Each structure stands twice: as structure tokens, then as C-alpha cells.
Amino acid sequence: MSKMIFVNLPVSNLKTSMAFYEALGFQNNPQFTDETAACMVWSEAIHVMLLTHDKWRTFTGRPIPPITSSEVMLCLSCDSREAVESLNEVAGKSGGTADINPQQDYGFMYNRNLADPDGHVWEMMWMDMSAMPAE
């Protein structure tokens, strides 16, 4: 089996979160989805597990942080600057928040940050490795 990552996120409304991630281009894997959790697939290696708060609490007793806090910023690479723009726009129209941090444009690398309906922070990033400075 190849190496994969499953990012587990507590969500307050599973259907709302599923719709948000589907709008961004994630696909649902029904094999790992029920009324308490949904597996949303970005690529063969990257999966996001959306877990109701009750389901989340079966994995850990640690508190779920408030929507206004950030513990991590998850970064996904995109195929183009236009894809970064599009995902940021879709997030704002699909129940999330666009541009939660200032966009960064270094010429060879471009990113914008968004948040899902529960405040989980995602950085959408495009990079042209051939244009990257030597140092």
C-alpha cells in the first residue's frame, strides 16, 4: 500500500461540510461514509475525514477548538494560479471564508488561504519549480 494521509477534522454539520468539500472538488468515498463521518478524497494519497463532534470524541478527549482558533494550516497544491483563484472564490460562495490571510505572490509561488465552515484553515498553493530562485 502506498503512503497516504487522512486528515481528520471535527465538523458541526456533516452534510454542510460534505457539500463544501464537494464544491472544492473533493469526491466522497461512500465506503468510509455514514451518518457520523465522511471520507472526502482530494487525490489518491490525500483524504479528509469529516467527523461529527460525537464521532470525534470517540477518538480523543481533547477539546474541539472554537471556530475562531487555528491549530494547523493545511496546504494543497494546485495545477495553476487560476485553480488557486477558483478554489478561493468557490470557498467564499460555498459556506466557507475566502482570503482569511493576505494572499502571497512570489512570482514562482502563489497562495491564498480559506477556511471551511468550521474554521479549518486551508492554503491553496501553486508553484512553478522551474522559476524558483536558486537559493
From TrEMBL:
<dbReference type="InterPro" id="IPR004360">
    <property type="entry name" value="Glyas_Fos-R_dOase_dom"/>
</dbReference>
<feature type="domain" description="Glyoxalase/fosfomycin resistance/dioxygenase">
    <location>
        <begin position="7"/>
        <end position="124"/>
    </location>
</feature>
<dbReference type="Pfam" id="PF00903">
    <property type="entry name" value="Glyoxalase"/>
</dbReference>
<dbReference type="InterPro" id="IPR029068">
    <property type="entry name" value="Glyas_Bleomycin-R_OHBP_Dase"/>
</dbReference>
<protein>
    <submittedName>
        <fullName>Glyoxalase-like domain protein</fullName>
    </submittedName>
</protein>
